[in-house]
Design a protein that fits this description.
Helix 4 packs across helix 8. The chain is globular. The chain is 57% helix and 11% strand. By secondary structure, the protein is mainly alpha-helical. The protein has a domain of 117 residues: Arc Repressor Mutant, subunit A.
């Protein structure tokens, strides 16, 4: 069976979507973001030069943000370990510290998580009795997330640990740099 064009990196699509696309060797692309596209054939054409590897290693924002995120996560994990928390669990408990229990969707959005990942992250906290997941009385499809009294007490013990660790990291960055970094990260997210 003949194909209309070269293979793409896009996910499988229906035949009606496929007929709407006009593809050629030069225009077959994979959507990376709003405007960024890469030709599939160009990605397969030649081996990548070692110089390109060095360029990516030294200049790739994604790589450097990932490395920094891992280093920060390790540092906070180590600081919070005596309390039996990870940095992710601390952030999750903190996101529930509100006057009214938030809906699962609101917490997922704040933490930039999908609901499935959030549900998995909530389970160990619920097993420990730190949070409660309950139905919203006005909409039984919605789940509300609430800190329990033990969860509130643990969070109160964790905040000074977070503050001191956070202050040490900010001091390491130097005067004015933490705020600049936050602004840049917000602009990227």
């Amino acid at each position: 069976m003949a194909r209309a064009g070269p293979r793409t990196l896009e996910s499988k699509s229906s035949s009606s979507q496929g007929s709407q696309r006009q593809s050629s060797a030069n225009s077959t692309v994979r959507e990376l973001g709003r405007k960024d596209r890469i030709p599939v054939e160009a990605a397969k054409a030649q081996p990548v030069a070692y110089e390109t590897t060095i360029l990516v290693r030294d200049s790739c924002l994604c790589l450097h943000v990932q490395r920094a995120a891992r280093a920060l996560a390790r540092r906070f994990d180590e600081a919070l370990r005596p309390l039996g928390l990870t940095n992710g669990q601390f952030s999750l408990l903190m996101s529930l510290n509100r006057p009214e229990p938030p809906a699962m969707g609101s917490v997922a959005s704040l933490l930039a998580m999908d609901r499935t990942t959030l549900t998995a992250a909530l389970k160990p906290l619920a097993r420990r009795g730190l949070i409660k997941i309950k139905k919203d009385q006005s909409d039984h499809r919605t789940r509300l997330l609430e800190l329990t009294l033990p969860g509130k007490k643990l969070l109160a013990r964790a905040v000074p640990v977070w503050k001191s660790t956070h202050a040490a990291i900010e001091n390491h960055l130097g005067n004015g740099e933490p705020e600049r970094l936050r602004k840049n990260l917000v602009a990227l997210s």
